[in-house]
Amino acid sequence: MTKRGKAALTICSTAFKTLGHAQASALGKKDLPIAVMPHPFGLRKRDEVRAIAEKCADDIVQLMTKAGAK
Amino acid sequence: MVSTPAATFEALDDLDAINKLYRERRWSDGLPIVPPTRERVARMLAGTRRKPDEVIATLPPGFGEATVERIAINAVMAGCDPEYLPVLIAATGAVAEAQFNIQGIEATTNSAAVWLVLNGPIVQQLEVNATFNCLGQGTWANATLGRAMRLILQNIGGALPGDMDRATQGQPAKYTFCCGESEVQSPWEPLHVERGFARDVSTVTVVAAEGTLNMNTHSKEAGELLRVIAESMVHPTSNEYCHGGEPWLVFAPEHADILKAGGLSKRDVKQRLWELTRMPARHLSVKEILRAQASRSDEYGEIKPETLLSISRTPDDIWFIVAGGPGTHSVYVPCFGNSRAVTREIL
């Protein structure tokens, strides 16, 4: 997407953060913004998941704003 | 498509020092390697007429270019003979096909390993073990071909454990997993013929295997034999039921003979297993029912607790070979689920 000039962002959990950064780097997009959420979700209660999602939404806005400013 | 030559470096002519270097740089699978010197790589490359800079595939998750030369380097490291190189070139091309989903297999937390199944004259030519202990230790071709495949995925594809290989535990088959089909012992057509190749063509089939389950049964009746095998295949933690997978089996020659004597063709065996392995969705956890719903709503619509889920989408998605020595042991090879095996001719 970024190679086509579109703004792009990846979301992953902490378990896949290393993979996400490594793959972005391998594809020549070392600066690809990645929003990271804590892993795992399975044992979390609904209100905890909501809080994680809200925090992630804030992170996405921040990361995209930062990426757009470059 | 061609690529640049592999990088070279100078090292002391000392096996211990070279293995220390490989250990530090994580270029090995954890076992000592055969140093891939220029001379050894040149000897390995004599095993093919392809040019060293030909790109066979680009391998996720690191998107490294698998040139013939880089495949040869890893083959040397694993201890392969030059005659093995065409197998690895074909296997590398096979794992890169979209339907195999090597990105998913390498980056997943699942234990999936790449299993190489060889068919045709190459099994005899390379002395690939398809009989006694064919999934175990002791045969050079089986051990080093499977190992080389893993090194290719790790060193060219970049799937290093804990980095881009995210397997929770992995499994021993990630060191090596390769065997032949014992076509002379099989009462049916061999795997590669079933998959559209001529009997005298040599092939390699790549399978995304979660592991192996030994199934010991002294049953001598075809219907009963299939029932106990099917019941061994049913397990609620299987990816196959979530995705409609592609389970594999290795039938012992004795078991295959019982099934044939019972009048069953390969297609009959698949159909019976497909029916006998259906499982009520209530055996899955609630989360797995949701996963199945996401993957299989086109087949089932809404999946309810009483919905009978099949292990694969169709009976033809169940595959098996005949291999092994005397004995009453067949093997279930549960698979990744989100993958389809690929067979390629060895040229």
How does this model look, in words?
The complex is a heterodimer of chains A (70) and B (347). Chain A contains 2 helices and 2 strands, in the order E-H-E-H. Chain A is mostly helical and 70 residues long. Chain A has one domain (2-69). Chain A is flat and about 40 Å long. In chain B, 35% of the residues lie in helices and 15% in strands. Chain B has helices at 15-24, 38-45, 68-78, 85-95, 102-107, 122-125, 140-156, 191-194, 222-233, 239-243, 253-261, 266-276, 286-300, and strands spanning 55-59, 64-67, 113-119, 178-180, 203-209, 213-216, 248-251, 279-280, 308-309, 319-322, 329-333, 342-345. In chain B, strands 4-3-5-12 form a 4-stranded mixed β-sheet. The mean pLDDT of chain B is 97. The chains are: A mainly alpha (70), B alpha+beta (347). Chain A binds chain B through residues 15-16, 18-19, 22-23, 26-27, 42, and chain B through 60-64, 107, 109, 158, 162-164, 166, 287.
